[in-house]
Amino acid sequence: MKLYRQPCTASVKPQAVQAEKGTEKRERKKQLKIDSDMDKIKLVVYNEYALGYIMPEQPDKVCTLADRVTLGAPSRTMLEPYFIGKNDTVRLASRKDFDTFRLSFEGYDNPQMYEYDTDKNGIN
Q1: What is the distance between the alpha carbons of residues 41 and 31, in angstroms, rounded to a whole number?
Q2: What is the dihedral of CA 68, 69, 74, 75, to 10 degrees?
Q3: What is the mean pLDDT of each run of 10 residues along the chain (124 residues)?
Q4: Is the pTM of this model over 0.90?
Q5: 3-state secondary structure of 71
Q6: Are 116 and 72 in contact (CB under 8 A)?
Q7: Is residue 117 within 8 Å of 93, Cβ to Cβ?
Q8: Where are the annotated segments for Disordered (predicted)?
Q9: CA atoms within 13 A on the CB side of 102
Q10: Whose CB among 11, 71, 86, 88 lies 3.0–4.6 Å from 49's, allowing a Cys bridge?
Q11: Whole-number Å distance between alpha carbons of 71 and 49
Q12: How many whole angstroms separate alpha carbon 46 and alpha carbon 53?
């Protein structure tokens, strides 16, 4: 039996090229993390008087979960959304904010779906 030797077709790439590919891979992973965070629903406090959420498709609109007239919210008959203007303040909501607005946090405690302030004290 005669064995034939095949020529080696694999090429060894210089280390600089290999390092560049590693950097590209890290950058791609970082971008995927950013994209996945942008896909999450953000639980927010709007102007310190409304608790709501922002859908990724509509980043300029806060859908209302609860608002408090005693904290300065305008009197409304329906919970229509707030549109974020240049003078408005929006921050991530925490568990403490849900207590303030007297809502249960139970259904929203899902970090894969919702983005919220995970600080234990609820202080930003």
Answers
A1: 18
A2: 110
A3: 52 51 66 61 93 94 86 74 92 95 92 87 51
A4: no
A5: helix
A6: no
A7: yes
A8: 1-31
A9: 2
A10: 71
A11: 5
A12: 9
